[in-house]
Amino acid sequence: MTTLGELAQRFGLTLSGDPARQVSGLSTLVEAGPQDLTFLSNRKYLAALDDTRAAAVILQPEFAARCPVDSLHTDDPYLAFARLTALFDRAPLPAAGIDPRAVVDPSAEVDASASIGAGAVVEAGARIGPRTVVGANCHVGADCRLGPGTRLYPGVVLYHDVHLGEDCTVHSGAVLGADGFGFAPGPQGWEKIHQLGGVRIGDRVEIGAGTTIDRGALGHTVIADGVIIDNQVMIAHNCRIGKNTAIAGCVGLAGSTIIGENCTLAGGVGVVGHVELCDGVHVTGMTMVTRSITQPGSYSSGTPMEPTRQWRRNAVRFSQLERLNQRFADLEKTRHN
Amino acid sequence: MTTLGELAQRFGLTLSGDPARQVSGLSTLVEAGPQDLTFLSNRKYLAALDDTRAAAVILQPEFAARCPVDSLHTDDPYLAFARLTALFDRAPLPAAGIDPRAVVDPSAEVDASASIGAGAVVEAGARIGPRTVVGANCHVGADCRLGPGTRLYPGVVLYHDVHLGEDCTVHSGAVLGADGFGFAPGPQGWEKIHQLGGVRIGDRVEIGAGTTIDRGALGHTVIADGVIIDNQVMIAHNCRIGKNTAIAGCVGLAGSTIIGENCTLAGGVGVVGHVELCDGVHVTGMTMVTRSITQPGSYSSGTPMEPTRQWRRNAVRFSQLERLNQRFADLEKTRHN
Amino acid sequence: MTTLGELAQRFGLTLSGDPARQVSGLSTLVEAGPQDLTFLSNRKYLAALDDTRAAAVILQPEFAARCPVDSLHTDDPYLAFARLTALFDRAPLPAAGIDPRAVVDPSAEVDASASIGAGAVVEAGARIGPRTVVGANCHVGADCRLGPGTRLYPGVVLYHDVHLGEDCTVHSGAVLGADGFGFAPGPQGWEKIHQLGGVRIGDRVEIGAGTTIDRGALGHTVIADGVIIDNQVMIAHNCRIGKNTAIAGCVGLAGSTIIGENCTLAGGVGVVGHVELCDGVHVTGMTMVTRSITQPGSYSSGTPMEPTRQWRRNAVRFSQLERLNQRFADLEKTRHN
User: Taking CA C303 as the corner, what is the angle to CA C297 and CA C305, rounded to the nearest 5 degrees?
Assistant: First the structure.
């Protein structure tokens, strides 16, 4: 429970309305009740503004006159909303200290303000920083380093020699530092290439549930500061991801792929190995990236969804395209003769 | 070990043969031995019926005359087979009670008939219903609710405020309630939008191994009764899945996607955010769904598999389609002049 | 720390240089320092050879003259490098014995030289072979068998009746033996088909992080000797994978799919159910395999990546291909008249 006046002051917003009005939650324009705060960040929801029953709306000053209830003004309502969510988050934070059912190697260094959950295992030589949280049943391998304020949710596995910087978040089921997929063909079959590198992750990196980031074969796999990674993303050995790049769910990067800064890869994108994407590249969903990209911009592949019966006919024609093209070239020639 | 007579009575089948004949297992028409029961659900396996060595075959009455061994008649042999599998399942069921190596918060309510496995952690305020099974090393977050008869296999993670109804099954490695992928661009990079909603799952829902269902940003992520979800499916924040919909492996749904009732999404389908699929939509494997669907029916995208050499030529022509189309239009004009 | 002389002898390489020269690590041609060993396996890196500062280079005899430092000769430098990596791997190996915080059923047989980590659970009737490692917080279901030298990294889950042969490696987050996705449509919705088969995995199989291999419905799901499987691969019930086949990350195989020997499936490939790929099939990344393949060779599907604006125009034309084709046929007819 807080008041509009407190929120305005704390988040640098301009209040138009009653500073004593109380808000107890955040909601959407449509669903907000009389104790909820909401926001308008996209002109296409303007109609919903007229009918909102919210306590107050965060919006751009230009829409204040139209707002039927109190409002908080800012040039970037979505950013203000993002920051406000922290206030209303009721997710429990584990208490500091090592749970008696955790298993911490005597040679590991754990800051007194860190939290190690029940069933967690911390191996030899690991260093856990201040305010860092290692959730229940996590595994922190030998010589790992977790910076201040980093949080591993329950069931995360770090193999040995994985470093995470400050204020990172790793969601449950993520596995960092498993072996890269390296094998040489031998006379009897595949022979394993032991993966000798580690994983190096910067500050303020978020890693989604079930995501896997493999260790490097010789050098490290590297994720720069501010990178955000969604669930079930696969990052192979020796990839390097640049600052503030965003990677959506189910993306797969093959080995030694380099992604620049401020890129976005939408859901289900696949990138072949040993290619490089420059800064500022945006790849749309499920695109197959088979070569390096040297110009910023948006890239795509695939075909549009259609009713299956119709799609089948077009798809058959796809496999005749080269032939069609030749028949067409023949016909053009005829015309010109 | 049971007899044909008992099976006929218990499952409402009509027996043609010896009620005292014993069966000890289930198998396919081809592999069944003289103590196995089998079934014929598809006319294309009729030839195999002639040679079967099974103890008995479940089949439609019209095929009884052709069956060389005893038979059990029903209009839906596949459904009868499905129900019979329960009899022959030797999967061990954990004993009721809280394992002494589980960690249960004193404020959690655990029914006396529930089973909490070794290493499982149950957080404050959670409620575990009758006959519910929480497998070894699972994590049940604060204020979660698990209805009667629901089973979490070992290593499932529920974050706080995740509700599951009755008779749900969640397979190992699944993560329910991790943060949705919500960030606002700020002056220094991405700023996290705390995910304030929960996850609400109905009755008789099955969730596959390694599947992730994120919590909602403001409202909840909602899965209706009777939904079945395969392995490694990714369901983003605020999705809503309608009753009895089936989602096969490796499907990815982006945020706020709404899927109707009785839909089927085949393996590897991807759906962009903020679209809605009406009831009765079927999407074929690996289709990229980029818009809402308002008519029931089957939908597809992609191109057919070909030998790589041939595919390469056609694929190049795909990227010249717009140009080809213009050249063609020019040629048509010429003809008409 | 070892010497070139020792390496030459141990790995059957011919040394050109100082047998007493010491090497302490492995690195790439470009990054290797004066105590590192490196290798040249691909002619395209010849330029880097000229400038290498490595202690020595493993290479084919024909390039020895060009090498500015000591060299070790072999016909297959990449294979020699692969074998050498084992020497330099600093990954810690857990000590033999059952950790006091593991939970092992009295009826399970655990070899004295095996290692069972903290928080691991080994169920009734399981058999764990010599030198086998069950990592922390793993779950080994009832009647599982793990052959000699097999290693489960922390957090792996095996359901009941899963067999692994000798010298297998299973990475964290993998789930073997979860229920296949089998349901029959019933009057009230989906009815579960209990999955009665198990999982049978041969020798020297590697299974990546987060990979799921479901148990069979009636018979077993079978993975042959020498198969290597990357991260987040989904193998459905009753699949059979032939010897030495390699499956890259994010591949999905639907139920009852049969893959031959010595195949390679690149990242993100999807294969529909009930099809069969013969030996020696190679499928390129993200291909959708919708039918059986009876000839060895390389297969592909999809469209090439383009700038989004350009792609959109071509994609629209894809959905008009059948129409274009008919218009073209009409025009051809006109010409011939």
Answer: 120
